[in-house]
Amino acid sequence: MPSRKLTRDQRKTETRRRRRPVSSAAKKPYCFFAHIACAFDARAHASPQATANLLIEISDKTLKSSGWEKHLKIAALTDSKRIELAGEIAMAAALDYLKSENEFRQFPTQRFVNFDLTQPPTYISIYPSPTKVLPNGAKVWRVAESEADKLRGEPLSIRYPEIDHRLALHPFLKGMSPHHLELLALCAMPTEFEEDQIVFREGEPANGFYLIESGTVALEGKTPSGRRVIIDTVSAGDPLGWSWLFPPYLWHFDARATKACTAICLSGIMLRQHRDEDLTLSHELFERTCNVMVRRLQAARAKLISANR
Fold this sequence. Notes:
Layout: H1 8-19, H2 24-27, E1 30-39, E2 50-58, H3 60-69, H4 79-100, H5 102-105, E3 109-118, E4 132-133, E5 139-142, H6 145-148, E6 154-155, H7 163-169, H8 178-185, E7 188-193, E8 198-200, E9 208-222, E10 228-235, E11 239-240, E12 254-267, H9 268-277, H10 279-307
Antiparallel strand pairs: 1-2, 1-3, 2-5, 3-6, 4-5, 7-12, 8-12, 9-10, 9-11, 9-12
Helix pairs in contact: 7-8, 9-10
């Protein structure tokens, strides 16, 4: 059979296609180790009736598919935001796996005790094929207790020294019970922002909730003409960001530190987990957040009235 002759333009296109480098970073999967405690009572997380050690792999294809559903441009996300999104998918995959297993389905409460980013391909030597592959392509391995320590990487949810004390001192959490403060401490980490540093951008996954301890943060939006305007200013003692509460869990504004800040960042992913499992904590968070929302809306209304006088 005679070979098909290519035109000059077709030859150039084919040459460019063959020479185009393949990004290994784009194809590198994200792997997470999860230690999950299962119990009949939400308050029994310290003494669970069953535990599961899981390894979850999120491929670039799965990440892009989830981004498409959330109307996100994955290529435009920073590495940290990609990891946050992959972690959100991995957590959902872990819970889906537990619901599919009779051993764990009987327990109404499943709590992530550890959720760690680990380096692939460590798990290859343990399990050559996944225990379960979910419809979105996420792969789940059941890991024996003896192998769990080998898979612990950089912790995404760890207990930081003095974090309990800092949480108890923050005005937003004033009067919260020790039990709820303990739950929040499991998903809290200290953070800092330099002056003019971007805290988050509009359209990115809202996977964090910030309690500002010092400094100020401006919430910024764009006018139809593209001009940036300051919508609100968040100061020490105030919370920042409630988009983690409501689907599709995306930021609606940019946040920029106007003065150097110290803050406590709580994982939106784990907060939603605790909120869904503990109705009293859910009520506390909603009530406190709604009070802040009403206060800020009233302040914005006052500004509009003053500007039109």
